[in-house]
Amino acid sequence: MCLFCPTPVAAPSSLWSSRRAFLLLAGAGAAAPALAQVDVGSASSMRRLVSAETLEQSAVQQYGQLLAQARAQRALAPAGHPQLERLHAIARRLIPFTTPWNDRARHWRWEVNLIGSKQINAFCMPGGKIAFYTGILDQLKLTDDETAMIMGHEMAHALREHARERIAKTQATNLGLRLGSQLLGLGDLGNLAASLGGQLLTLKFSRSDESDADLVGLELAARAGFNPAAAVSLWQKMGNATGSSQGGLAFLSTHPSGPQRIRELEQNVPKVQGLYEAAVRQ
Description:
Blueprint: H1 13-24, H2 52-72, H3 82-94, E1 111-115, E2 122-125, E3 129-133, H4 134-139, H5 144-159, H6 162-174, H7 186-194, H8 207-223, H9 230-241, H10 250-254, H11 259-280
Parallel strand pairs: 1-3
Antiparallel strand pairs: 2-3
Helix pairs in contact: 2-7, 3-5, 5-8, 5-9, 8-11, 9-11
């Protein structure tokens, strides 16, 4: 069931007036919006070697399989579960600000689900398929602001099409391709992408991808009225959890914490502080 299917939603009038250019000047695809406050540049053109539609279809299939498995194990949170409702409320605030980062997002059938597990983990697959594990909420004792930073970060991976880029680069390398080569057409890489749905949850993003998602997620959350300072406290909690023996640290294995990451966030919090303050005044 699609909980967050695209619907015309008008932002509050004063906030819309002050930020309408951000939405109206946003470019198509995964380019950075014209008036974005964080500096991340444009997404890699390499991703175009893999069909976005094909990858999103693969994500739908894998997401469905994951939910079916969780449901069979009685680990899928039912409608009305307090933590799930909390996640839905956060997502509803973030989603209206996603389209400027990727025009495809206006057509995504956003879903958010909660899986009972001690894993410290969360993800957003291509096409807006989000899952949180109870371990990341419970063990880190996340506030709504910190939860929004994780959700915004994961949304950013999907909006910036990092999985699409990773798969394109991996397949191009494996097949000995070079840009401009005529050995394989785009259709061949598209077909390969269709068979890679099982890899979407195990893809490891680059340090650059992680930084990109941190900053885009930071701005998404600030525009939605979540305190950007929570990004710093979140990663401090992540760092403290690194040596913990409680539950799996799947999230930390692909999202390493460290002083450099925290410093970059601290440097960017002032850039989005005004967005946050404008949002909370509404």
